[in-house]
Amino acid sequence: MTESPEGLMFLKGHGTLNDFVILPDDRADVELHDDLVRALCDRRGGIGADGVLRIATAGALVDRGVLAALPDGVGAADWFMDYRNADGSIAEMCGNGVRVFAHALVSTGRAGVGRIAVGTRSGPRPADILHHDGTHAVVRVDMGEPVLLGVSSAELSGRVYAGLAVDMGNPHLACVVPGLGPAELRDLPVHEAPVYDTGFFSEGVNVEIATPLVDGRVFMRVHERGSGETMSCGTGIVATAVAALADAGEATGEVLVSVPGGEVGVALTDSGSTLTGPSELVAHGWYTH
Ligand SMILES: N[C@@H](CCC[C@H](N)C(=O)O)C(=O)O
């Protein structure tokens, strides 16, 4: 049951400190309007999170009019990650979210360990639970093929960065800064909303700032569309791996990406990409609204 006299049932989880309120709502009964999302994500008056992951079947979301149609490759009975940013806006994809979502499906008995078909607005993102002990999991997500859109630039907190525009289902500008080291990256201000080319990124953009690839590793920070600076961003991590490899003259390979919230592994092949990292479920309860 989703709603009861006690309120709205929720779980709280994160993937490398990119945190989410998870709403199990199989039949999409809850009217997930912007104000409710903002209230849930409010770090003082609400539960606090970078975004909301509603668990529902794809078919139920179509029946309720939340989705206009089933995305290609997503079946009506598939679990669908209905993702919202903290400001209430809808995003097509969330890489850390898929890991936490798949973990929550297993932990609530909605799926068994193994490969789980997760539907998103960008299409299917199959997730493999590699390890699971209730509150902790390690999950690998098939993130699909990154699409390179060209180069662009953005101003972030007073500095201008050039980067590679990468479509991961959602839009990214991944900026690998020559000569930037991890300590300087840590001190950079990235909290202000970016100023970007709205002709190029008509739907807004997530901006990543990263160090060049050294020994298979990069360090990254991110300013997310709709959520501000976050401690990690899975789609941004893959976009950054693509940009860092391109900067090193490569198109495929394995990259370990360090973000303020931890470490996540990316593998890029000729035909696609995977993201492997942790998920942690930290709380559950009732949201009284
Ligand atoms: N944190 C996410 C991305 C969430 C959506 C993003 N803010 C957008 O609006 O595109 C991730 O882990 O990928």
Q: Any overview of this molecule?
A:
- It contains five helices and 20 strands.
- It is 16% helix and 43% strand.
- The protein has two domains: 152 residues, Diaminopimelate Epimerase, Chain A, domain 1 (Roll), CATH 3.10.310.10; 125 residues, Diaminopimelate Epimerase, Chain A, domain 1, CATH 3.10.310.
- The two termini are 16 Å apart.
- The protein is an alpha+beta fold.
- It is globular, with a radius of gyration of 18 Å.
- The longest helix is centred in the last third of the chain and has 14 residues.
- It binds the ligand N[C@@H](CCC[C@H](N)C(=O)O)C(=O)O.
Structural features:
single chain; 289 residues; alpha+beta; Diaminopimelate Epimerase, Chain A, domain 1; 2 domains; 20-stranded mixed β-sheet; 5 helices; globular; binds the ligand N[C@@H](CCC[C@H](N)C(=O)O)C(=O)O
| Rg estimate, integer Å | 18 Å
Q: Indicate how many domains the architecture comprises.
A: 2
**Strand and helix order:** EEEHEHEHEEEEEEEEHEEEEHEEE
Distinct small molecules:
the ligand N[C@@H](CCC[C@H](N)C(=O)O)C(=O)O
Name given to the CATH homologous superfamily of the largest domain: Diaminopimelate Epimerase, Chain A, domain 1
Sheet-strand content, in percent, reads 35-45%
- State the oligomer: single chain
Report the principal-axis shape: globular
- Share of residues in helices: 10-25%
Mean pLDDT across the residues is 97
Please count the beta strands (DSSP E, at least 2 residues each). 20
Extract low-pLDDT stretches.
none
